[in-house]
Fold this sequence. Notes:
The chain is of the alpha+beta class.
Amino acid sequence: MxxxxxxxxxxxxxxxxxxxxxxxxxxxxxxxxxxxxxxPERPRVTDLDPKAEKAQERRIxxxxxxxxxxxxxxxxxxxxxxxxxxxxHSVRNNTMxxxxxxxxxxxxxxxxxxxxxxxLMHGHDLVEERHETRGSEPTRQRAAEIFTEANEESxxxxxxxxxxxxxxxxxxxxxPGVVLLRDLAPMADPVxxxxxxxxxxxxxxxxxxxxxxxRAADVTLGSAFxxxxxxxxxxxxxxxxxxxxxxxxxxxxxxxxxxxxxxRETWSFDGIVAYSKICTHVGCPVALYEQQTHHLLCPCxxxxxxxxxxxxxxxxxxxxxxxxxxxxxxxxxxxxxxSDFTEPVGPSFWERVL
Length: 354
Ligand code: FES
């Protein structure tokens, strides 16, 4: 069939089926997928049995009542379990009870509505014709006229300076919003905050979470201690932020098992070593110690660190050894830090100098 004949055939088909479709919705008849039609509608049990319909209605009403009770319970629980500033237990109780009540209320009303539409509302198939996206010719012409009139009356294209300053003002107006993003960062320079922890010379290593100091004699061969700096629990503010940087793992190995690089000979005490607990991948706590192999495992993405070789990475996505905390023992036999970490803890960040 020539192209001319094909066009004629399409045009003829369109005239036979109804009004000529606009260019936006015309379909070439020979490529159209045959319409399979709708399957015959099957009546539901609620369409046939009024008793079943009534039973479903009662069930849905019960669900709505459950939802009402859940909403009221959320208000009551909010009052019964108030949030007390500084008390994490109150925050946990409030969140748990109020959240559970709201979840119950939303779940019940959601299930009820879906059940109502499926079991009781009449189901029938509808065909909705897609209407043309293109406006009629008179509408299009009128729109063009309005646009031209508005342009002439406003002088938008004629008054060029006016137009350009308006465009510039519109472009510049979101900039204050960008500046306000600065408020999302800490007021202090974040780089020093990330580079230093609260460890300092002479600060005792204490048990997490009790804060009791640790004697070197308490650390037996093969044992591991979760450690926080002395005084962390007494901090009035920012306790969690400091702990997130300063948490340490303390282990004792046979001194002959440790492979120490020059410069670190004095950083351990009689086989006792301390390493940052913050994974150098993305900062999870590296809390699993395998005492037979002396490996530390990060549970987040399975990075493994070898304590016998200064916590170097032996497996996983971490790229850097865990920073070591230099330790010593004070005159009373307690373990103390010799200084802060000598490099930033945790994942690498933009200012890191390796
Ligand atoms: Fe430790 Fe990813 S955070 S392996």
